[in-house]
Write a structure and sequence with these properties.
The protein is built from four helices and three strands. The chain is 64% helix and 11% strand. It has one domain. The protein is mainly alpha-helical.
Length: 140
Amino acid sequence: MLQRIQSIWLLLAASMGALSLQFSFFSGNKLNAETNVKEWIEYTAAQGSLNAILTIAICVATLVCIFMYKDRKRQLLINLIILAVSLLNIFLYFNASKSFTESNTDLTALISLSIPVCLVLAAIGIYKDEQLVKNADRLR
């Protein structure tokens, strides 16, 4: 299970998702409507409710996907769905930055941006594994 490279990529994507709950994606000034004063805010996945739900779903689904190694087609399908959700999550991060008067993307945003990269590499590994099994079955 963990000796396959795609399992390592999936585990890395799940750990990056968990880290993105702690570290900020961007930071900036947001205007407080009540006091009309700018506040410095570091925006993490835990601060946006939809971002938090999607990030937790990505982590859980990625961990579940690791244990689906017997059904590679379903594992690949779920991996691609997780990839689409993680891209949606990144879109929501950038969409949330528009509500700030001034915002800067933090260096720790690379944690969230590396999740789709890990998922693509895992999908390549799953596909190669499936092709290897097909070739072995053909030789029998």
